[in-house]
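Before surveying the methods themselves, it helps to consider a single example record, giving the amino acid sequence and backbone structure tokens:
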Amino acid sequence: MKRQVETTVEFLKEAGIDAPQIGIVLGTGLGALAEEIEVEKEVSYEDIPNFPVSTVEFHKGKLIYGTINGVKVLAMNGRFHFYEGYSMAEVVFPIRVMKFLGIEQLLISNAAGNMNLSWKKGQLMMITDHINLQPDNPLRGNGAAEFGPLFVDMSAPYDESINKGLQEAAAENNIPLHTGTYVSVAGPNLETKAEYRFLRAAGADVVGMSTVPEIIAANQLELPVSAISVLTDDCDPDNLQAVNIEEIIAIAKTAEQDLIKIFKSYIATQVK
């Protein structure tokens, strides 16, 4: 696995991707940040050796290299999910590649269902903790130990310094930014009323189908990471409505404007 990562890194360096400072993972319906990048290089996933190919309709499937506010960034416009049929090693493969390319920190976004009834869809939540209900782990299996310790401490998986910077960026832009716990499930089906009650009782504020594998991989690599969820639908088990995926994507795209402002403002503070 490490040799595959090294081969991919060599290819991307030869393609002109050199010393990015910040890695960004753009979640479902959250690709507009890519338009804020002063692009130097775009590479389709299908053209990258060893890279998986995104199969989700709303994911572009491109690696974008360039600058935001003078900072070199490398953005994944489209991520990979366990429910697409990939192994966890494949899901986190791009995170390992970005680390070996030189990124110093990682920003992750996702679309999530809101189970906290004091919040509303269209708002943002910075993840401060998570519950992992995915059926596999990126640190399991042959080759995972090549990237760091297997028994990774997860007492504080989300970097406090980045979190503080994101909160300051939100305040500067007058954007409400909740904090809370994300629960990651396998998907791709949405949850039943009973499952929402169960997950809320377990301590989760929002639910999604991604992010946690990348967080685990980043912590193994000792890569500082933070994540923000866009709340795309209200998951009130007592008033549960049938899911409309098009509406979820539309809400994600609207709320993404606030996410972009936060990320851009934070990135501007990271100029060296």
The chain has a mean pLDDT of 94. Residues 245-268 form the longest helix (24 residues). DSSP finds seven helices and nine strands in the chain.
